[in-house]
Amino acid sequence: MLEIRWHGRGGQGAVTSVELLALSAIEEGKYAQGFPSFGPERRGAPVTAFNRVDDRQIKIRSGIYHPDVVVVLDESLVALVNVTEGLKPTGILLVNTTKTLAELKKNIRFEGRIATCDATGIAREELGVPITNTTMLGALVKLTGAVKIESLDAPIKERFGRIAPKNQAAAKRAYKEVRIISKGSK
Amino acid sequence: MGKRVGMEVAIASAEAAALCKFDVAAVYPITPQSHVAEHLSDIVNDGRVDASFITVESEHSALSAAMGASATGARVVTATSSQGLLYMHEVLPITSAMRLPIVMLIANRAISGPINIWNDHSDIMPQRDTGWISFFADNGQEVVDMTIQAFKVAEHREVMLPVNVNMDGFQLTHMVEPIIMPDQGEVDRFLPEYVPYATLHPDRPVSMGTLAMPEIYAEAQKAKNVAIVNSKKIILEVWKEWEKLFGRRYEPIQAYRTKDADVALVTMGSMGETAEIAVEELRKQGVKAGLLKIKLWRPFPFAELRKAVQGIRVLAVTDRACSFGGPGGPVFSEIRSALYEEPVRPAIVNYIIGLGGRDVQVEDFMEMVRQAARGKLSEPYVFYGVRG
Question: I need a surface site. Which of A5, A138, B160, B260 has the fewest CB within 10 A?
């Protein structure tokens, strides 16, 4: 079972991301959960959201404390929140940033794999706005193989309608452009 | 055959009500039920069912409006949570006394104070004695299935009682997960058109909800009790029919690996599935653990419980609500009372867990079983993992 924690700010679409990933996985015939951190949300405040994806029925309904993957939609959170808390040493940290490994390591103590993607840059070019949730989905899918990249198309279309093609294009670009900048020591 | 979809459970519950072609929805939004209210409103607005959505100024009015609509012969759905359900409380026993088959979707949430919006069962427990049938769902599929079953049970001529379907707030309502949504045709075949026993109509005046003097009030209460006790037979029939048509089995008490169990957990609601994993883990370690999941809270399935506990040495009953100054949690006290006259009965211990959104993990359930194996806890009931 793959467990994912998303970090974003209220309004950046972390909750939409977990919904889209869960829907894509379920559409493939897999089992999945997508859920927000339970409770009130405020625009701009740090938020988390979660996914579980598995080939078998998922029974567990408690929280996710030791994710396999952490996705950070907003690089400013790295200095504010301990984004790698509980992240498995064998897991992956995926950050939306143009920073180098050395720059990231100023705030992050994680010895596992680290990947980055300039999702803000891609989203600005493809969508015209710096909303990175669908873009980062593409990067996540490349790193994890949680679903096929094409499987994102239908849920994105359903969700975004007219502007879906732009979001699909952004996801596919991130799928190509995401880079592993640290293979980790484990 | 139904379609497997990914859907938020709150939305799915409203979709299930739409499959039942409700005539009226009277709902006031409250966290974590709000998506149910919003989606019912969308369904009516989009003309997907030929229905009215009554906007109301409170939950008290929501259920009052629902009753008025139901009394005219309409199929009615409402939904609430927590303080909203407490605010409705005054109206609940009237609904059942007037034998109005309203279905209520409840997103279970803690009650104030302190103010808390997260999940537990302290909102539904004060409604226990209001004469409503109460279902508890483990997952999104059960929420959908039970919502459809609820209308059939409620409207059955031998039942004619309101039904509430309990789904854990957030843990279920805010979860996107796979659900098989039945087809409209399947639901149409399962759920007949509602034929009311008596209706309010200007041309055929009748009185409903009248005053009862001491000479008749007690008989009215007894009649209500007879009705809800007898409803179990119909609930079992409806569940059997559901299994035949849809292939998913429903039982008042669902047993999980209890055949040779030494210690069995008892849960109600979404924590049952997490507890199942704990049972599997304990079994791997050689501990003969089992699990009983209560799906029917009212009418309480006494006979099924007595049968289900046979051979079990210790029952570890979990409660998601308090009975302050009482004998333990409400589920515990029910179960202990149900088994009092049994010549052979298990030792029964009680854990109060998961209050106000406190997470309960697999390891917690495993530890509860280990402690319970002694047959006795340090106190008559234990607030598991709680400081102070």
Answer: B260
Tokens for A74, please give them: 């907003």
| CATH, range B253-383 | 3.40.50.920
Q: C-alpha distances in angstroms, B259 versus B203, B264, B277, B309, B332? A: 59, 10, 17, 9, 21
Strand (E) or helix (H) holding A72: strand A69-72
CA distance B109 to chain A (A): 12
Q: Do B175 and A34 touch (CB under 8 A)?
A: yes
User: Would the CATH topology of B3-246 be identical to that of B253-383?
Assistant: yes
Contacts of B144 (CB under 8 A, 6+ apart): B12, B13, B15, B16, B179, B180, B181, B182
Contact A25 B6 (CB under 8 A): yes
Cα–Cα dist A63/A3, whole Å: 10
Structural domain spans, chain B? 3-246, 253-383
Residue A39: its chain B contacts at CB < 8 A? Answer: 117-118, 170, 357
- Tell me the residues of chain B between 125 and 184 that have a Cβ less than 8 Å away from chain A: 170-171, 174-178
Query: Which whole-number Å values give the CA distances from B165 to A36, B12, B107, B150, in the listed order?
Result: 23, 13, 9, 7
CA distance A66 to A64: 6
0.80 exceeded by pTM:
yes
pLDDT, tens only, A81-128: 999 999 999 999 999 999 999 999 999 999 999 999 999 999 999 999
- Which value, to the nearest 10 degrees, does the dihedral of the CA atoms of residues A148, A152, A154, A159 take? 170
Do A59 and B273 count as a contact with CB atoms less than 8 A apart?
yes
Model pLDDT for residues A29-53, shown as the tens digit of each residue = 999 999 999 877 788 899 999 999 9
Summarised one tens digit per residue, pLDDT across range B271-307 is 999 999 999 999 999 999 999 999 999 999 999 999 9
Four-residue CA torsion sign, B149, B153, B155, B160:
negative
Which domains, and CATH codes, for chain A?
Answer: 2-182 (3.40.920.10)
- Sign of CA pseudo-dihedral A126, A132, A133, A135: positive
CB neighbourhood size of B267 (10 A): 29
